[in-house]
Amino acid sequence: MELHHFTHTHPLTFFERQNRDNDAENTNCSGCLDPILEESSYGCTQCNYFLHKKCAEVLPPVIQSQTHEHPFTLLCKQISFCCDACGKDGSHSPYVCFSCNLTVHDHCTSLSRTIRIIRHEHLLRHTYFLHESESEWRPCSICHQDLSADRGCYHCPTCDYAAHVHCATRSDIWDGTTRDEEDDMESSEAGLDSIIRIVKEIKLGEDMIAAEIEHFSHEHTLIFSNEGADNKCCDGCGIPISSPFYSCEECDFFLHKTCAELPRNKVFSFHQHTLTLHSDGVFPCRACSIDSNGFSYRCERCSFGLDLRCSSIPDTLIHQAHRHNLFVFFKDDREHKCNGCGALEKNGLQCCECWYFLDFKCATLPLTAMHSYDEHPLKLTFEDDSDPDQLYCDVCEDKRNPYHWFYSCNDCSVTIHPKCVFGKYP
Predict the structure, then answer these.
(1) Model-level pTM?
(2) What is the pLDDT of residue 155?
(3) Edge to edge, what strands does the sheet with 406-409 contain?
């Protein structure tokens, strides 16, 4: 049986899978470039040109891709190229958009337009160029290796998160399903509706605000407030309350507005299952190793759980303490010394350019905080060049390390350990 295929000038002869004597076993398919091995194939022995049977029957001359507005046309020739869709090299039979001068692998014509990965909270959209990039190269947000701004990648325009195509589509990062923006918005709204019920709304400026809500974590109605609440902590995240927040008039229960509006389900960068919001019991956070009795995100399928602060850390963090981006890593083989507190930890965020490291405890410290020792907001401070004799914590009166972070009030010359602001003496 012969096939006249548009990719080759000579008729191609059909070789059955059982035929172990043909030349196809020792060559690669000119369509997908995988070895022919013992699969059925079509081939021209004169030119040593072979196609898997499945490739010969499905490789169309023109393809309309989800990721590009124009059709791609198959270019059937031996040619070296760099794929504009994924940034990797190819050697044979690319698809070409002659209008835009794009050249792509045949398998890259089927890339999904938008995907959701476990490493990022927003949908990623495929793009052929990073038009807003300030330089030709930037680090991939997943592998942290160089990513060309002139080649295709998956990108979040909201956060400027960008990843190689082959990194974003790894099986441990993406489950292979696609989602568009409308589906994602509906899912987010459904997640919010499942944890609160709005009892009463009011107009605040130009916005409608939920003035009274019922929250899944508390038996009484919670009232909205935009004023201060002295010496009160959020029952969700454990951080001192700041406006806006919700509180219970019948008991001492407080929630930041952001904590009250958390989604029921979310993903964490380095866990393969969806995490569900819980509000009961004391639990150890798997990221920072601190026991917490506030809200947590836990996996229903295994013992993995995170407190609210650690679950909110993005895959890529921009922190005031450091000039470069910091990237999350989890369960590393060796311990790293935290630049914020000096502790040795395996989990944290690291700079790939200078190896600056923060553990989750320091990376999640709020930039400002309140404490009963001082009437002013305390500012998180990253270095201290004061006289060594003055390096004391005003709450516990123990000495402070000048290279470790602390909270300070410049008006009152107050300095306090972070652990004294939030932990031992809250």
Answers:
(1) 0.66
(2) 93
(3) 368-371, 374-381, 406-409, 414-416
Residue 194: the pLDDT is 63
Q: Contact, 103 vs 94, CB < 8 A?
A: yes
User: Could you give the C-alpha distances from 335 to 48, 61, 343, in angstroms and in order?
Assistant: 54, 54, 9
pLDDT of amino acid 191: 47
185, 195, 298, 299, 417 from 263: Cα distances, Å: 12, 8, 13, 14, 32
- The amino acid occupying position 261 is E
Alpha-carbon distance 382 to 23, whole Å?
68
Which backbone phi and psi does 44 adopt, to 5 degrees?
-115, 105
pLDDT at 143: 86
Q: What is the pLDDT of residue 189?
A: 47
The reported pLDDT for the residue numbered 20 is: 47
CA distances from 210 to 33, 178, 224, 255 (A): 59, 33, 7, 14
Structure tokens at 321: 């303490």
DSSP-based three-state secondary structure for 77: coil
Are 170 and 181 in contact, with CB atoms under 8 Å apart? no
Closest CA to 405 of 350, 354, 346, 342: 342
Return the pLDDT at 180.
60
Give CA–CA dist 5/249, Å, rounded.
78
For the chain, which residues score pLDDT lower than 70? Answer: 17-26, 58-59, 132-134, 179-194, 331-332, 423-426
CA distance 110 to 95: 11
For the sheet containing 41-44, what is the strand order? 2-3, 12-15, 41-44, 49-52
Q: How far apart are CA 78 and CA 74, in angstroms?
A: 12
pLDDT (tens digit per residue) in 111-131: 999 998 888 878 999 999 887
Q: Quote the DSSP letter at residue 93.
A: -
Two tokens, residue 395 = 């709450």
Cα 218 to Cα 168, 196, 214, 236: the distances in Å are: 39, 10, 8, 11
Distance (Å, rounded) from C-alpha 411 to C-alpha 281?
A: 40
